[in-house]
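User: What would this chain look like folded?
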Amino acid sequence: MAKPDRLTQYAQKDEILWHDRKRYLGLPISFTRYSFDENRFYLRKGLLNITNDEILLYRVLDLNLKRSLGQRIFGVGTIILSTADQTTPTMKIESIRDCERVYRALSNIVEKERDEKRVLGKEMFGAAGFDDIGDTMMHNF
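Assistant: Here's the prediction, encoded as structure tokens.
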């Protein structure tokens, strides 16, 4: 019987709560895939050259939902995540179906994650590069 290695316990994935593809004319014919679980948002792009990106949900600062007329006609929308992540400060979840439901779910999970990790807004500002504000205010006193 094979001995389980220590890497296996760290390599297990959480249950995916939602997944979809970027859509053109309402059809999922792209190689851009989105998904999230209770802790992370995943982006996977490409057919031959594949790029994976993930964002910890407690690092999301703001969510925006945008739907153009064309997107509303085809029943899709775009969610924009503003994050405190250095490599991906803004991520667009483009042309996904059922975008309002996904937007509400992401918003609730982000708040839950921030509460569990006890992350306050002022801690996130420093992570997003706004720490110069605090330095300026300290010099004024």
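Residues 130-141 have pLDDT under 50 and may be disordered. If you want, I can go into more detail on any region.
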